[in-house]
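Researcher: Structure prediction, please.
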Amino acid sequence: MKIKSIEIGKVSIPLKKPFKTALRTVHSAEDIIVKVIADSGEVGFGNAPPTAVITGDSQDSIIAAIRDTLASKIVGMEVDNLEGIMAALDSGMLHNCSAKAALDIAVYDLFGKRYGLPLYKLFGGYCRSMETDLTISLNEPDEMMRDSLEAVAEGYTALKLKVGNDPALDIRRVQAIRDAVGPAVKIRLDANQGWNAKEAVRTIRRFEADGLDIELIEQPVKAHDFYGLKYVTDHVETDIMADESAFGPYEVFRLLSMRACDLVNIKLMKAGGLHNAVKIAHFAETVGVQCMMGCMLESKVGITAAASLAAGKRIVTRADLDAAVLLAEDPVVGGVSFDKNQLILSDAPGLGITEVLGWQKI
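Model: Predicted structure follows.
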């Protein structure tokens, strides 16, 4: 089976509610969908949500990278030659990790379909389902509290609260939510680079002193501030998770070497796809650092790919794969399914996806 051609399209999916973080506010998911077509007629699906404030990739840059450079590197290659295809993508151009991830996911989907194997089994087959948390957008304390109670009523037992724009207000937000949801619900915080190192330590120590029982705090400082991240990790009791700092395998290797974080958040759109995400998981497993599988605001194509890797690897102990349930519509036919806070993978080959409705070819 050889790669015959590559088609690029897009879908625009409204969100149920605006998605707000310390970095951005989003009203709809603008997802680039690629179809990697084999000479057998089989189709592999991949995707890339533009997240310029994190990855530097815009919708136009993703399209251009695939169409003008990356596609030609892999057309004509045997799907069996995963190593060669991934090497061609990695060396094809610098950066452009989201564009690479879209093609990487689609090729893995084809590989799974080629051998009748669901991807979660290809990656190790550790489990077939997992719990995801639900993200609570950055808003005033009362609104975040209402959103949290709604999520708990829907069956979520872990919440990821967006914070980071005002430490004093962040304390009020977390206190209001903990009081509302009670002690049984796990609370995770994501500062999205919103604090500096000393500010983060002061704020987290306040959470600890107030007994708010925070499971973990994600990316408290700027992505490039590895030493600041290590300072926070070394000076608080709460587990600190690297996200934007943990961009790809090299950055994760450096973080782990420095012991700059307690946990690592793996995201396909940062890593450049599944093949680099596997490397990150293996680095972390080697030194005993647990991972979370995260996502951007993407369709169920990327969520299924991320869930497949998370289900395959024992070191991935947490999932933040709620993007698809934040969307008002689901145009993806097949793939992962949801039962309250549980993601359940299909035993269909590859991603188990057969079509993306409303896909507009570019």
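Model: The mean pLDDT is 97.
Researcher: Thanks, that helps.
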